[in-house]
Amino acid sequence: MPSPIDATPTNVDWQGVAHPTADDAPRIASLVPSLTELLFALALGPYVVARTGFCVHPKPDIVRVPKIGGTKDPDLVRLAALAPTHLIVNVDENRRETVDAAREFVPNVIVTHPVDPIDNVRLFAMFGAIFNREREAAALRRAFDAARSDLDAVAARLRRESVLYLIWRKPWMTVARDTYISATLARAGLDTVPIQSTRRYPELADDDPAWRNADRIIVSSEPYAFRTRDAEELAIRYERPAHLIDGEWTSWYGSRAIEGLKALARFRVTLR
Predict the structure, then answer these.
(1) Which residue, among 33, 93, 87, has the nearest Cα to 254 in the 3D structure?
(2) Backbone φ and ψ of 173, nearest 5°
């Protein structure tokens, strides 16, 4: 019996829109850094005509693609001038009003919203179906399944731990359990400390119980560029282990998630 992921029609995006198969020369714009990289991994790099300034992978190929601003404030006038046939967006990373405005001149707006590592399977299949890259998508899935299986094996033999995962300071900000980051950490046996908040990315006071409730503190290299000294200071202040990790391990989906799961498996072993 197929899983819910496998049962989803492959050309249907997260908004429920079924997209027709693209022609042989699509013009693709992406406002999602990790999915810009996925396009290149699917051999679609020659057809990417626009990206954000945060779309930094893969190097050096990405350099030739015109930048149109940030994920939250892209230059829609410049985007329109590049005449994209497809626009890749994400519920978390892009503003709805921006996406709605782009719909006025982009024929196909592909909405994504992965909230769990397994959603990468759907991403690979959807992009493969829409852009005629089923073979490349199948190869990515095989690599992803292998990395996921290895991480599951590592997590299964280690004690689960609670972690406070920080993505920002001034104010401190963390992640709720319904986020992709939290689900990825949970896959590695690291359960994020629940915060009393309705926000998916809640703020955190210096005296919040979460600091004491976590077995460990993890600071991420993005979106805030935490450094090793930040982890060292927090370890002293709250008297518990603190670690700096590459934020791409937990927050980048698409093709980079494969290496992210491998890196988390190695990191998890070091915590024994």
Answers:
(1) 33
(2) -135, 145
Query: Do 115 and 154 belong together in one domain?
Result: no
- 203-218: per-residue pLDDT in tens? 999 999 999 999 999 9
Q: What are 122-164's pLDDT values in tens digits?
A: 999 999 999 999 999 999 999 999 999 999 999 999 999 999 9
What pTM, to 2 d.p., does this model score? 0.93
Query: DSSP character for 98?
Result: H
Q: Is 218 within 8 Å of 187 (Cβ atoms)?
A: no
Tokens of 111: 């909405």
Q: Do residues 251 and 215 both lie within one domain?
A: yes
Q: Which residue, among 206, 184, 179, has the nearest Cα to 194 in the 3D structure? A: 179
Task: Say which residues have a Cβ less than 8 Å from residue 190's Cβ, sequence separation at least 6.
Answer: 160, 161, 162, 163, 216, 218, 268
Name which of 100, 105, 110 is nearest 21 in CA terms: 110
Is 242 domain-assigned? yes
Closest by alpha carbon to 17, among 88, 103, 109?
109
Residue 28 bridge partners (DSSP):
48, 86
Number of domains in the chain: 2
Domain of 189, in residue numbers = 146-270
